[in-house]
Amino acid sequence: MSEKQYVIFKLGSEEYGVDIMTVREITELKETTKIPDTPNFIEGVINLRGSVVPVINLKKRFTLEETTINKNSRIIIVTIGEKQIGFIVDDASQVMTLKEEDIENPPEIIAGVDRRYIVGIGKREEKIIILLDLIAVFSEDEKRKIENMKM
């Protein structure tokens, strides 16, 4: 029986998880510098210890209702290819271990939705956690643009 650890974060009232092995770090929200002519879900860039890191607003990317950024808001940093990417979330405060049998495939009813980034549905007690692949949030074209961003 295999287990995996997930970083759990919130977008609004919903809980999401990402494989801890894909997360480089979690940092407090920093002010972003806007970059012209980028998609609206790209908030801008931050300076992370000398590295320029693009920051994505996951609520905008997923077309979720936006809420006010507050003291609990965080940036989850992941690596895509050679680039680090930050994702703004409402809160990221715990690591959860899920057993293989506690994870189901996404329901087929979501078939009309682009669900390439939903890797599973985690169940823990009465909680449901939507498990994501943050790298798959981007189309191949968007990944290329991110890789080619001049920083």
From TrEMBL:
GO terms for cellular component: cytosol. PANTHER family: CHEMOTAXIS PROTEIN CHEW, CHEMOTAXIS SENSOR HISTIDINE KINASE-RELATED. InterPro entries: CheW, CheW-like_dom_sf, CheW-lke_dom. Keywords: Chemotaxis, Cytoplasm. GO terms for biological process: chemotaxis; signal transduction. Its main location: cytoplasm. CDD domains: CheW (cd00732). It is found in: Cytoplasm. This is Chemotaxis protein CheW. Residues 3-143 form the CheW-like domain.
